[in-house]
Design a protein that fits this description.
about 200 residues; alpha/beta; seven-stranded mixed sheet; 6 helices; 7 strands
Amino acid sequence: MRLIVGLGNPGRRYQDTPHNAGFLVCDGFAERYSLGPEATKFEGLYRRGRVAGEDVGVLKPTTFMNLSGRSVAEALRYTPAEGKDLILVFDDLELPLGKLRIRPGGGHGGHNGTRSVIESIGQRDFPRLRVGVGRPSNQRDPTGHLLSRVRSEQRDQFRQTVERAVEALDYLLEHGVDGAMNRYNGLPAIGEEEMGKGK
């Protein structure tokens, strides 16, 4: 069984914020495969279904970001999934908006939700899909940027980034981490393709 975990914060206040990119990717993936309604389980919102012949669970922890690992540890305790079966999806300030980065493992990179997961399950060797949300312009506070609604001029680019992340997650399940890395890590950020054509 594969366990896909998207990180974010619960509640309408955070619904369309960059920090909830992981939630949005999970929602898009679940809709693509008609996984059915969410159930309140494992201190989160959980769906389960079959994807390409494989048993897949999709979890959005509702513990708030800094305690996400508590939810993930509980899901791993009570489902057939093990740590190596986890795929973590989360936002990344260090990647420009529109860019994805897939890795087979590693540290938390300063992301509090990822830190919580690593500490709670005692493992760091699991794939992660990082969704670029970019650093704020004009020296804006990064926290305010992450927890504020996506700015109107960036909403379409953000939506397309989430859609590409859903495709990348789909590809990762079918072709493995290496295949997904080769396909998506080198792609230009969404929006850069059009800029390149205009040169």
